Amino acid sequence: MKAEKSSGRREFLSTSAKVAAACTLFGAVSGFASAQDQTSQKAGQSSITDKHYYLDDVLLETGFNYQDSTVIGTQTALHTVEIRDGKIVAVLPNKQHADGTLNAYSAQGKLMLPAFRDMHIHLDKTFYGGPWQAPQSREGKTIMDMIALEQKLLPELQPFTEERANALIALIQSQGSTIARSHCNIEPVSGLKNLEALQKVLGEHQQDLTCEIVAFPQHGLLHSKSEGLMREAMQAGAHYVGGLDPTNVDSAMEKSLDSMFKIALDYNKGVDIHLHETSPAGVAAINYMIKTVDENRSLRGKVTISHAFALATLTPEQAEKTAKQLAEQQITIASTVPIGTLHMPLKTLNKNGVFVMTGTDSVIDHWSPFGLGDMLEKANLYAQLYTRPDELSLSRSLAIATGNILPLDEKGQQMWPAKGDDASFVLLDASCSAEAVARISPRFATFHKGHLAHGIMPKSAS
Fold it and tell me: Which region is the signal sequence (predicted)?
């Protein structure tokens, strides 16, 4: 009976999360239109080009309100944040300017939260920015069928790689993300063309986006004979060696993973593998990667398993054991917070010290049309599926969107922003982080290392 109740609650939460995601989609469409309107007005309003300036009227979290020992609310206050050369140099009482010669801008009472991080996205292949195109039906199709379809589609997409990558970047910045990790196809159809195009686009966004590139053998490292191209991608500046389903696609789990790790070790790079397999082979692959990192300590802290759906097949006891092993080897999990039948043990991973991050994955492409580019939506889904809807739990759920940077610690002590932090943050229409997560609050402006990446900043009233 207990198992049935747990299953029923899980299905209810998944359904609830899907409804929330659908509602968010409508909001995102409206919000994006608003963002475009703001951009069109930008020439007539204030933007920020200063290297040293004040930002007034910033709403910061300062502590928790308690009833007995229970957190029932979040304290906030307006402050001025002094920014110089991309860093926060002081957090001051509101409108207290030691240097009257500096320009001051107004956050208009918006809540400041750490910049969001979209740590699994595909900027190099997308329908986004072009005409609407739904994916073809996947009924009865295997991943190998999808790979064959992609091999036909890629030449049609490549003329638009730069234009659409720029559109995706504008989208995620409008939602508060200025830090990202993009997977980039490296296989015989694309060669290094997608990598070259993506590097060009990212070179044009050095001021407003920090983005790592994963060389991704989407058609199978062994299956598509892409090892040589992957090595060329490492030499060309890719940051991570990617991989894909070593059993289902490459049909040789150990050989595929060994080849991936060998490239990483040869070029002193990190690893970020797509692992969708939910069969016992997926669990075997995770265990093999844990073993490999344990035997090659230089890989500790440099390996990410994206999706890792096999973790959802483990019993609670198995999940606990695996989480401890992942934490010991400092292996990161990148989850898109799936809302279908897979219930990932993300809370167990977090509890045991595994670094869990999230990302968009596909926005609109031949795999999926549902991506919003919104990490706050991912935090909302995490909160619905894995925590309770109270003030403290909601505020903690923000961590999956920010790389574990939170304004307050669990005891309500202010941790961020602090002197010396990067001036990378998002301003939102919310009273606190708990409300922002629960309501997926609208974004007002996004800053990256002091640079205004999205939005408009009016001058502060004297």
Answer: 1-35
What is the Cα–Cα distance from 106 to 82, expressed in whole angstroms?
Answer: 12
**How far is 289 from 328, CA to CA, in rounded Å?**
12
405: amino acid identity, one letter: I
- Residue 244 sits at φ, ψ, to 5 deg, of -155, 125
Helix (H, G, I), strand (E, B) or coil at 38: helix
Q: From the CA atom positions of the chain, what is the Rg in Å?
A: 22
| DSSP classification of residue 272 | E
Would residue 330 be called left, alpha or beta, if left means φ above 0 and alpha means ψ between -120 and 50 degrees?
A: left
Coil, strand or helix at 275: strand
Estimate the crossing angle of helix 280-295 against helix 316-328, to 10 degrees: 30
In this structure, the strands spanning 356-358 and 425-428 are unpaired
pLDDT in tens, 349-406: 999 999 999 999 999 999 999 999 999 999 999 999 999 999 999 999 999 999 999 9
Asked whether 397 and 382 are in contact (CB, 8 A), the reply is yes
Listed in sequence order, the residues at least 6 apart from 229 whose beta carbon sits closer than 8 Å to its beta carbon are: 186, 187, 188, 191, 192, 217
- Paired residues of 425 in beta bridges: 114, 447
The model's pTM: 0.90
d(CA 346, CA 40): 41
